[in-house]
């Protein structure tokens, strides 16, 4: 389902909250999105004509519905999309180009300022499309800090887009890119997947979305989803860096100011009645879109060493730093093996709890109960120090970004199963 069809579906189900009074893009929309997990449509926004949507994919249920799959089968669906990519077809036109603006003024977009000490207004739902010199294509989310009428500062964590840009810069060339806003949840999850460098994430997006058609950009040699809401086209400027940040990231704490590349926007294309999608930084939508694609990766790695039932990155761990893995324990070492495999699969993971299959991993009280009754710290903890973790962990060393990790094996001791039996009350 594309973004617009999904909004219409939410509306038909009477789930979309319409805010009809005029609201400010500075803090007010962010505050409303923080107060409730409901999906919102802000119909009138100060300073422009465009409506703003927020919290749209802010729950597992809504993400599953957007992918037309049961919530229980989200991981299966994502795993399948990795092994069976479906490349979208090219269309000669699409609603995303109903309006073409070459005289760029980013102030026409309702770019939100979210938190008190953020460095400025930020586009938070932009998915950047780029291609390297050999034609390897990449999709990834990058926050865009508006720094001028036609320029953004772009946060590039050293991953694929960072590599593509550096290679282009080494040849003295700026890199053509396009930022897609409102491309649908299949596109979003594909963009947040760290597939290997030579994998075209549009194939994953096509497999997840079911229907996805691309169209050629107006001013750059790239393709974007034909039914997206808004696209900004332009280039990452070779040799230019500006201060980017502070910015409230997934943990709800401020990420630091860094020197980052500049995105010069040369053209904006959009639907006639484009709706601007916002993702509240540190909110459930941000956490789910970023964290969910790591779950199948953790599943596949842990599956190599134990019989895995389920994997979840938890809301309390900001959907990124904490995982719970449930296993059907067969051997005493299974829990510790699963801990090691989970850390291997998701290097940003800080803490992981491994539980037995009878624990509901989506219920924090159940998980804590398993720790209380099945875990002994001097025997079942795996502690690592001075290891690579997440740049978003405020306890990591600010220079080296090295930190510590802990794995908790909260599975039952196989030799003493009767001690762990959950008492039942007979009928
Ligand atoms: C809402 C959202 C915002 C994100 N913001 C950034 C960002 O500003 N910079 C960044 O490098 N990654 C960001 N990410 C994470 C990347 O999109 C993600 O790790 C992606 O897999 C990287 O792709 P790559 O491995 O192809 O480079 C964000 C993810 C989400 C869901």
Automatic annotation (TrEMBL):
GO terms for cellular component: cytoplasm
Residue ranges occupied by any 3-octaprenyl-4-hydroxybenzoate carboxy-lyase-like C-terminal domain in the UniProt entry: 288-410
Metabolic or biological pathway: Isoprenoid biosynthesis; isopentenyl diphosphate biosynthesis via mevalonate pathway
Enzyme Commission designation: 4.1.1.126
Domain 3-octaprenyl-4-hydroxybenzoate carboxy-lyase-like Rift-related: 92-284
Entry's Gene Ontology BP terms: isoprenoid biosynthetic process
A Pfam family annotated for this UniProt entry: UbiD
Domain 3-octaprenyl-4-hydroxybenzoate carboxy-lyase-like N-terminal: start-end pairs: 7-81
Keywords, in A-Z order: Decarboxylase, Flavoprotein, FMN, Isoprene biosynthesis, Lyase, Manganese
UniProt cofactor(s): Mn(2+); prenylated FMN
GO molecular function per UniProt: carboxy-lyase activity
Catalyzed chemical reaction(s): (2E)-3-methyl-5-phosphooxypent-2-enoate + H(+) = isopentenyl phosphate + CO2
Keyword Flavoprotein on entry: yes
EC class (word): lyase
Region (Disordered): 387-408
Family classification: Belongs to the UbiD family.
Function: Catalyzes the conversion of trans-anhydromevalonate 5-phosphate (tAHMP) into isopentenyl phosphate. Involved in the archaeal mevalonate (MVA) pathway, which provides fundamental precursors for isoprenoid biosynthesis, such as isopentenyl diphosphate (IPP) and dimethylallyl diphosphate (DMAPP).
Name of the protein described by the UniProt record: Anhydromevalonate phosphate decarboxylase
Organism (species): candidate division MSBL1 archaeon SCGC-AAA259O05
């Amino acid at each position: 389902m594309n973004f617009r069809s999904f909004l219409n579906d939410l509306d038909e189900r009477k789930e979309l909250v319409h805010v009809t009074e005029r609201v400010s893009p500075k803090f007010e929309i962010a505050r409303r999105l923080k107060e409730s997990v409901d999906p919102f449509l802000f119909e009138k926004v100060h300073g422009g004509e465009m409506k703003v949507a927020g919290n749209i994919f802010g729950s597992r249920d809504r993400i599953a519905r957007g992918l037309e799959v049961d919530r229980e089968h989200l991981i299966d669906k994502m795993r399948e999309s990795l092994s069976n990519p479906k490349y979208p077809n090219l269309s000669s036109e699409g609603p995303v180009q109903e309006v073409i603006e070459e005289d760029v003024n980013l102030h026409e977009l309702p770019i939100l300022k979210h938190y008190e000490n953020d460095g400025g207004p930020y586009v938070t739902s932009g998915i950047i499309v780029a291609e390297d010199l050999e034609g390897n294509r990449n999709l990834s989310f990058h926050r865009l800090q508006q720094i001028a009428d036609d320029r953004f500062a772009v946060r590039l964590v050293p991953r694929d887009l960072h590599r593509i840009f550096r290679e282009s810069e080494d040849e003295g060339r700026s890199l053509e890119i396009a930022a897609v806003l409102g491309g649908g949840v299949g596109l979003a999850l594909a963009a947040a997947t760290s597939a290997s460098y030579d994998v075209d994430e549009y194939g994953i997006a096509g497999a997840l979305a079911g229907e996805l058609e691309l169209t050629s950009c107006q001013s750059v040699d790239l393709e974007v989803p034909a039914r997206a809401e808004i696209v900004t086209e332009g280039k990452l400027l070779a040799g230019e860096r500006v201060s980017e940040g502070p910015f409230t990231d997934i943990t709800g704490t401020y990420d630091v100011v860094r020197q980052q590349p500049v995105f010069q926007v040369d053209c904006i294309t959009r639907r006639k009645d484009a709706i601007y999608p916002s993702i509240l930084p540190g909110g459930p939508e941000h956490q789910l879109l970023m964290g969910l694609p790591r779950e199948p990766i953790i599943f596949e790695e842990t599956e190599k060493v134990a019989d895995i039932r389920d994997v979840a990155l938890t809301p309390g761990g900001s959907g990124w730093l904490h995982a719970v893995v449930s296993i059907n324990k067969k051997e005493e070492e299974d829990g510790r093996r699963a801990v090691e495999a989970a850390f291997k699969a998701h290097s940003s993971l800080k803490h992981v709890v491994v539980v037995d299959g009878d624990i509901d991993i989506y219920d924090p009280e159940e998980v804590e109960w398993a720790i209380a009754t099945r875990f002994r710290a001097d025997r079942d903890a795996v502690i690592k120090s001075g290891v690579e973790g997440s740049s978003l962990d405020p306890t990591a060393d600010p220079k080296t970004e090295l930190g510590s990790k802990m794995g908790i094996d909260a599975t039952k001791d196989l030799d003493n199963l009767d001690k762990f039996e959950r008492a039942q009350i007979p009928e």
